[in-house]
Amino acid sequence: MKSILVAAAVALVVSILFTPYLIRIFSKQGFGQEIREEVQKSHAAKRGTPTMGGMAILVAMWVGYLVTHLTVAEEGPSVSGLLVLGLTTALGIVGFLDDFIKIRKQRNLGLNKTAKLVGQLVAAVLFAILAMRFPDANGITPASEHLSFIRDITVVSFGTIGFVIFAYVAISGWSNAVNFTDGMDGLAGGTAAMVLATYVLISFWQLRNDCISGTGPACYTVRDPLDVAVVAAAAMAACIGFLWWNAAPAKIFMGDTGSLALGGLVAGLSMVTRTELLMIIIGGLFVVEALSVVLQIVVFRSTRRRLFRMAPFHHHFELAGWAETTVIIRFWVLAGISCLFGVGLFYADWLSLVDV
Known about the structure:
The protein has helices at 2-29, 40-43, 54-71, 79-105, 113-131, 159-181, 187-208, 225-246, 255-272, 278-282, 284-303, 313-319, 324-354; strands at 146-148, 152-157. By secondary structure, the protein is an all-alpha fold. The chain has one domain (2-278). A two-stranded antiparallel sheet has the order 1-2. Strand 1 (146-148) and strand 2 (152-157) form a beta hairpin. The radius of gyration is 20 Å and the shape is globular. The model has no long low-confidence stretch (mean pLDDT 90).
């Protein structure tokens, strides 16, 4: 428990203090955000706001994790923790390149779709291959070839190649979903903080009820649950610290540097905690945002009419006349409900097996 608290505290302080430094540097360099034409009327004042603030989240997360292992952690960094951090950083680099191209070319389009997908593919394949290796003393690897809900569904096995394909779909899907959500001040950051807080609880509960300790049918077969909780706690606190500067009116945006990284992070956490399908419920707001984009494209191509005023979904309400802060707060409420429902399902499953 001490490791989790230290990781969160250090990451929070680093994020709060490092973000204004990035604001000053990026402002001097002219690293400002370009605005989509469809929302220029309501977001015109945001043009030129520094972007690539996701760097603060990545730095704070790494510092919180490393300081914890240099001070209070009883064991060194784990394979699971490093793999999730590596995946997050790799996608953060893809996002940074996307943001940098947008800034240099002074437009709202960075990497083309092919380049972005290739970056996500490389990160996902490396993560998937490595996550199936490095078994611990009990033969447990960071990820499993089985599809999982709250535990592995043993009757559904991908096999090694199938898992690599699944990992790519999940990682690219979640990174794009968080990227779609990042369209209003603090919306993605606040939602990600809630999702990550949920994974702190899940990982800690898995630690207290792991099968190695022999806690009966309700136990969890996962590797390195404590270190995964440390990663989630550091990332959660980093998002909260960044939100201090990113909440409306935002002084800095996380950009694709942050949104792609956070999407990869939650995807990685779902795989190492064996909660891949449960993540769909926990990250319900991200799912709805991504689904709104898909539906908009399908309906428009089929009927030449728009299902929403604008996709992703949050812009639909903004163009309907809702104040930006109203949309953000209500979407945060929906995100919180999704997280609570996910935790409830997780705990209910444990209770049902304890009573067996």
